[in-house]
Amino acid sequence: MADFLTLVGARIKQLRIQKGLSQAKLAEMADLQDTYIGGVERGKRNISLNSLERIMSALEADPAEALKFGRLEVLEEEKDKQNVLDIHISLLRERSLAEVKLVQRMAKDMFDTLDQEKIER
């Protein structure tokens, strides 16, 4: 049972983060305590169906979304990709427009080469 609770909690956390909500804000929207949300996300609380419905309603998601564990890896990969993109953006912000355009041209050339290699395979 603990593994199931952990999976449900992890999925709720991902959905909350996707919406850009804090635990406190989600708790407020679902009319629950923020410590309860934290316990659910850590898999430490045995969430009731009523609470699940309130949380998913606050997230504007179908309750069945809380059980779609196959998306956990996909969402984690998307999160990692976004983190890398954020790092690139922060690096580029410190550069001049000419340098940013140079990086853009270099990236385009690299992607064109990669795409051409895919076609040739």
TrEMBL record:
CDD domains: HTH_XRE. Residues 12-66 form the HTH cro/C1-type domain. One of its GO terms (cellular component) is cytosol. It comes from the Bacteria. One of its GO terms (molecular function) is DNA binding. InterPro entries: Cro/C1-type_HTH, Lambda_DNA-bd_dom_sf, TransReg_Diox_bact_type. Keywords: DNA-binding. Signal peptide: none annotated. PANTHER family: DNA-BINDING PHAGE PROTEIN, HTH-TYPE TRANSCRIPTIONAL REGULATOR. This is Helix-turn-helix transcriptional regulator. It comes from Paenibacillus spiritus. The lineage of its organism: Bacteria, Bacillati, Bacillota, Bacilli, Bacillales.
